[in-house]
Write a structure and sequence with these properties.
Aspartate Aminotransferase, domain 1; seven-stranded mixed sheet; 2 domains; alpha/beta; Aspartate Aminotransferase, domain 2; 14 helices
Length: 396
């Protein structure tokens, strides 16, 4: 079928939870996608920061093929070698001692919320349960994670939200300090707000946050669902800030495009998850864990982190050049290959025109063009993207 036929069938059968663009991808390789009509697209969205290794990275594809021929799924009632290997790999490269696996970022954040509350209840009693999060944050689409999210547009129509969350401005340590009460048990933050408009804090912010948490015996949770697995040029974004959390969540890029989530924690907290306290049927099954092991090794061994740093600096420089020419670009910001261009005008039409010309980008918070290409992107591909974007901005 051609693209239009697929779209017509989707309109008949698929719930309209997304404002989908008229694109039907059927094949991908590296930084490129092809649709059902054979048109090629340069992908600077990467499945919303999922395809950090590009589309169909050979190591991930081979791991999936091999594992699918041996064992796709078994229960977490048993020990799963691929899951154990992945846990060892992630803990060995981070602050964490233990891992819990699930299927998505929202589920990883649910696990973090539950662990923080259970640990605090066991240590301090039932009156410590509130979790402080940031305005403009995004933590998922479940009832708990939209309650944690600091965006009214995500929460609209789903009242009553879960009790026990409060929101403060991001990058404001004084506001956080003032929000701490005896009922608080944790602080949950993204190192860089992606859906919030690619907002990075000041260098000292997380040191102050860590000090506040230590003073009040609060658990510090970092949501690295979008920033983790190399997106910022380090395996985990918290490494940029010299501050480690007590709990960290991962998903998106963890398995190179296959669905998996993870919640990592220090030993003292992890002990609160005992048999029956939490679980996931598919979480960390052999197929997804094998893909994740291959993806993490590829990030660590193939110069991906170094390329993210170098190409992030190059892309930022090229975008700064556009900023000098087009006054409606007011700021270019980000770390590694998580980059946003703040506009003084709405960005939706720019995204639409880019799609028509074979370029995939998106807009966050209505006025921030977000660039999250695969971490294997080349200078030539960045130059091609800039050329397409420059033509669109000239028309604007």
């Amino acid at each position: 079928m051609n693209s239009q036929q697929w779209i017509e069938k989707a309109d008949h059968y698929i719930m309209k939870t997304y404002g989908r663009y008229p694109l039907v991808p059927v094949r991908g390789e590296g930084c490129w996608l092809w649709d059902a009509d054979g048109k090629r697209y340069l992908d600077f969205l990467a499945g919303v920061a999922v395809n950090n290794l590009g589309h169909c990275h050979p190591r991930v594809v081979e791991a999936l093929r091999r594992q699918a021929g041996e064992l796709i799924h078994c229960s977490n009632f048993y020990h799963i070698p691929q899951q154990i290997e992945l846990a060892e790999l992630l803990c060995g490269r981070s602050f964490a001692d233990r891992a819990f696996f699930c299927n998505s970022g929202a589920e990883a954040n649910e696990a973090a919320i539950k662990l923080a509350r259970k640990y605090s209840r066991e240590k301090f009693g039932p009156d410590r349960y509130e979790i402080i999060t940031a305005l403009s944050s995004f933590h998922g689409r479940t009832m708990a994670t939209i309650s944690a999210t600091g965006q009214e547009k995500v929460q609209r129509f789903f009242d009553p939200l879960l009790h026990g969350f409060k929101h403060v401005p991001f990058n404001d340590a004084d506001a956080l300090r003032a929000a701490v009460t005896p009922t608080c048990c944790a602080v949950m933050l993204e190192p860089i707000q992606g859906e919030g408009g690619v907002v990075a804090p000041s260098p000292e912010y997380f040191r102050e946050v860590r000090a506040i948490c230590d003073r009040h015996d609060l658990i510090l949770i970092f949501d690295e669902v979008q920033t983790g697995i190399g997106r910022t040029g380090k395996l985990f974004a918290y490494e940029h800030f010299g501050t480690a959390p007590d709990i960290m969540t991962l998903a998106k890029a963890l398995a190179g495009g296959a669905p998996i989530g993870a919640m990592l924690a220090r030993e003292a907290l992890a002990g609160s998850f005992t048999p029956g306290s939490h679980g996931s049927t598919f979480g960390g099954n052999p197929l997804m864990a094998a893909a994740a092991v291959a993806a993490v090794h590829a990030v660590l061994e193939e110069g991906v982190l170094e390329n993210a740093v170098a190409m992030g600096a190059y892309l930022t420089g090229r975008l700064e050049g556009l900023k000098e020419r087009f006054p409606f670009i007011t700021e270019v910001r980000g770390i590694g290959l998580l980059i946003g261009a703040q506009l003084s005008i709405p960005g939706a039409d720019i995204v639409k025109k880019a799609l028509e010309r074979g370029l995939l980008i998106n807009v966050a918070q209505e006025r921030v063009l977000r660039f999250v290409p695969p971490l294997i992107v080349t200078r030539e591909e960045i130059d091609l993207m800039i050329g397409i974007l420059e033509g669109i901005l000239t028309e604007v």
